[in-house]
């Protein structure tokens, strides 16, 4: 989830917290189940972020396998490298989704979790994905449709303003409906498509929705449009809905399993 964003320390820390949630763990399981990795395979993690997916990939392929990870952020590479220290068959390097630093047909499988929505040139990113996959290789792609976001607040006018400032955090606000066509245009076949809803009726700290709120607040403050006081008031509104038992949140992510023809 780090292609195309400037990740300072605060954003890096809030992203770490997002990946620790139960919802993120369920998403990782869906990705790993979809890829069905085998011992000894080579797998690529595009936009590895804090390295949670890479860590579980390493467990799946074992020490005779290889996990190659790229990210545009030095901070994320550092975080992911520390997370995977016990798995020396995981390798990290700086690289972008549109210019993967690998030879052709090098990987059996690849994953890109909540990354492509940050990449302006999706067609080029998918060409690169196809290039590095071996014939018959498969890829798991997860992307968020931010237009599906439903989030209750005491002050819905303020909520709308905050979310409008958050909107430019990615290049594609509603990528999933377009992905099947884009994948087919680049020669992929699709074997699986499914929705991964992130629904929560609780705003407790361990939930994805709570941690996303911290991420959104940090991002909008960094844009210089929403001040710290307004962002704090927005977070207070959300705490009030939680205290009243009225917390309601949902956003949909989508999982696609695509194959490069043999």
Condensed summary:
It is built from nine helices and seven strands. The chain has 262 residues and is α/β, with parallel strands linked by helices. It is globular, with a radius of gyration of 18 Å.
Written account of the structure:
By secondary structure, the chain is of the alpha/beta class. The protein has a domain at 9-146 and 171-199 and 251-259: Rossmann fold (3-Layer(aba) Sandwich), CATH 3.40.50.150. Helices cover 40% and strands 25% of the residues. It contains 9 helices and 7 strands; from the N terminus they run H-H-E-H-E-H-E-E-H-E-H-H-E-H-H-E. It has helices at residues 9-19, 22-35, 52-61, 74-83, 122-132, 156-166, 179-185, 208-222, 228-243; strands at residues 42-46, 66-71, 90-94, 107-113, 133-151, 189-200, 249-259. It has a 7-stranded mixed β-sheet with strand order 3-2-1-4-5-7-6. Mean pLDDT is 93; it is low at 1-5.
List the helices and strands and how they pair.
Layout lengths: L8 H11 L2 H14 L6 E5 L5 H10 L4 E6 L2 H10 L6 E5 L12 E7 L8 H11 E19 L4 H11 L12 H7 L3 E12 L7 H15 L5 H16 L5 E11 L3
Parallel strand pairs: 1-2, 1-4, 2-3, 4-5
Antiparallel strand pairs: 5-7, 6-7
What is Rg?
A: 18 Å
SS-derived structural category: alpha/beta
Number of DSSP strand runs: 7
Major beta-sheet overview: 7 strands, mixed
In the CATH hierarchy, the architecture of one domain is 3-Layer(aba) Sandwich
What is the string of SSEs from the N terminus onward?
Answer: HHEHEHEEHEHHEHHE
Strand order of the largest sheet: 3-2-1-4-5-7-6
Percentage of residues assigned to helices: 40-55%
Instruction: Determine the CATH topology of one domain.
Output: Rossmann fold
Distance between the terminal alpha carbons, to the nearest Å? 29 Å
Q: Count helical runs.
A: 9
Mean pLDDT: 93
């Amino acid at each position: 989830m780090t292609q195309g964003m400037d990740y300072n320390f605060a954003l890096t820390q809030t992203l770490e917290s997002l990946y620790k949630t139960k919802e993120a763990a369920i998403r990782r399981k869906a990705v790993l189940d979809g890829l069905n990795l085998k011992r000894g395979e080579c797998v690529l993690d595009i936009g590895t972020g804090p390295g949670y997916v890479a860590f579980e990939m390493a467990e799946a392929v074992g020490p005779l396998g290889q996990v190659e990870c790229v990210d545009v952020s030095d901070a994320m590479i550092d975080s992911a490298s520390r997370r995977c220290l016990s798995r020396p068959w995981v390798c990290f390097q700086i690289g972008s989704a549109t210019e993967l630093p690998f030879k052709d047909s090098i990987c059996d499988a690849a994953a890109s979790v909540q990354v492509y929505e940050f990449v302006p040139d999706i067609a080029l990113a998918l060409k690169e994905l196809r290039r590095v996959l071996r014939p018959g290789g498969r890829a798991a792609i997860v992307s968020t449709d931010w237009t599906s976001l439903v989030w209750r607040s005491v002050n819905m006018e303020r909520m709308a303003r905050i979310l409008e400032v958050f909107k430019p955090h990615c290049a594609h606000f509603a990528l999933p409906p377009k992905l099947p066509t884009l994948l087919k245009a680049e020669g992929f076949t699709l074997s699986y498509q499914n929705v991964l809803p992130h629904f929560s009726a609780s705003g407790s700290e361990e939930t994805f929705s709570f941690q996303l709120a911290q991420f959104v607040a940090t991002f909008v403050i960094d844009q210089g449009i929403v001040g710290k006081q307004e962002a704090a008031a927005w977070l207070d509104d959300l705490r009030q809905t939680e205290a009243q038992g009225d917390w309601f949140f949902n956003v949909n992510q989508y999982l696609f399993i695509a194959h490069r023809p043999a």
